[in-house]
């Protein structure tokens, strides 16, 4: 079985951590100077292990194995959320690099904008499978400051570069190692999670239209307060969604904006970004029906008008049975009794790569379940263990 150089693997992770360091985490938004520095750093590491390194017009960094196949693809992303953790995404890329260093026939990929700093998100993994159009690039803007994606690509020195696509038949499958971003493994005293599938995320924009007016001169009976209607709608959703959801469903109002947003003005408009997640499409359909019924009921009860618009609907991505079995065997070899199968509650690049090849994921515990925050962390011994499990699982699958 391939032997992972754990010390070098951890050294690579900690070197990458220095680029865009923020407290104990990192701040590397997509196409920022820090993000581009990290991509150049990665290309140098890929060349050191004998891969042919390149970067494309959407920012994907790719290390191509020069030898004969069959080949695997492995990786994740290296940009971060704002003031966030050092392992989310970066762990998967450094683990893929460690597999290549151990001699496995692996192509290493660091996909651009998995974190969704730009409208649409998952730009790199969508692009590399041919699912990102030029029109979508033209339309996309930064969620942080409204910068057009075309402008950000030009500022990053990527404009004019071709966008690569995966060649048909080259890869037997895709492996992605990631932190759990939850507490299941830690709470159960387990060290490895073999992922069974990746949830779909259905995103919605809820708009509440009321009447902007004076906070002192307008009586309570006269008001059409969009803010209060929004609060009551979200409370209704929190009460009704448990009747429609599954065991691992989640729902989130991640952004609520009241306009004009002044203390002495009754809000005339509320804008809500709402999402729910599950791995089962039938459950997602039930949750959508619940959402629509709640909006309909609010329009019956309230003096404000509520409208609902779908922003996006991703598809759940089940992991490949043969790849899961290979990871099961490797986990039992290195952590007997200390691993489990589990679904992923987060979205990952693997769900897009799954459209063109078999995929699998491996989870390592998150201390306290913390992620998307600079305090995100995992024990070094768990990082090293899971990287070795990943390597053994990859070899078992290649030989299968």
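^ Assign residues to that structure.
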């Amino acid at each position: 079985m391939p032997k992972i150089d754990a010390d070098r693997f951890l050294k690579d992770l900690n070197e990458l951590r220095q680029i865009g360091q923020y407290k104990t985490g990192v701040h590397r938004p997509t196409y920022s100077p820090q993000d581009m520095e990290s991509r150049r750093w990665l290309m140098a590491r890929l060349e050191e292990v004998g891969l042919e390194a390149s970067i494309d017009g959407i920012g994907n960094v790719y290390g191509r194995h020069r030898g004969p196949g069959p080949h695997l693809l492995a990786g994740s992303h290296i940009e971060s959320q704002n003031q966030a953790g050092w392992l989310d995404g970066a762990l998967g890329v450094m683990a893929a690099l460690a597999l290549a260093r151990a001699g496995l026939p692996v192509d290493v990929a660091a996909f651009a904008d998995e974190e969704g700093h730009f409208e649409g998100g998952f730009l790199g993994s969508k692009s590399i499978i041919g699912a990102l159009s030029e029109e979508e690039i033209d339309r996309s803007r930064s969620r942080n400051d409204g910068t057009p994606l075309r402008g950000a690509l030009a500022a990053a020195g990527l404009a004019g570069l071709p966008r690569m696509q995966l060649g048909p038949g080259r890869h037997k499958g895709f492996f992605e190692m990631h932190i759990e971003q939850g507490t299941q493994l830690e709470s159960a005293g387990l060290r490895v999670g073999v992922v069974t599938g990746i949830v779909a995320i259905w995103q919605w924009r809820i708009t509440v239209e009321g009447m902007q007016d004076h906070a002192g001169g307008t009586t309570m009976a006269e008001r059409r307060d969009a803010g209060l209607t929004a609060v009551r709608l979200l409370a209704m959703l929190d009460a009704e969604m448990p009747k429609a959801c599954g065991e691992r469903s989640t729902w989130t109002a991640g952004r609520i904006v009241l306009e004009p947003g002044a203390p002495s003005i009754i809000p005339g408009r509320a804008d809500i970004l709402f999402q729910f997640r599950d791995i089962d499409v039938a459950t997602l359909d039930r949750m959508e029906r619940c959402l629509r019924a709640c909006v309909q009921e609010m329009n019956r009860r309230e003096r404000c008008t509520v409208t609902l618009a779908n922003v996006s609907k991703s598809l759940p991505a089940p992991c490949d049975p043969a790849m899961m079995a290979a990871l099961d065997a490797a986990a039992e070899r290195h952590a007997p009794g200390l691993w489990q199968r589990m679904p992923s509650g987060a979205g990952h690049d693997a769900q897009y790569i799954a459209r063109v090849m078999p995929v699998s994921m491996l989870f390592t515990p998150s201390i306290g379940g913390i992620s998307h925050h600079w305090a995100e962390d995992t024990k070094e011994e768990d990082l090293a263990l899971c990287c070795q499990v990943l390597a053994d699982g990859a070899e078992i699958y290649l030989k299968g």
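The chain is about 35% helix and 25% strand.
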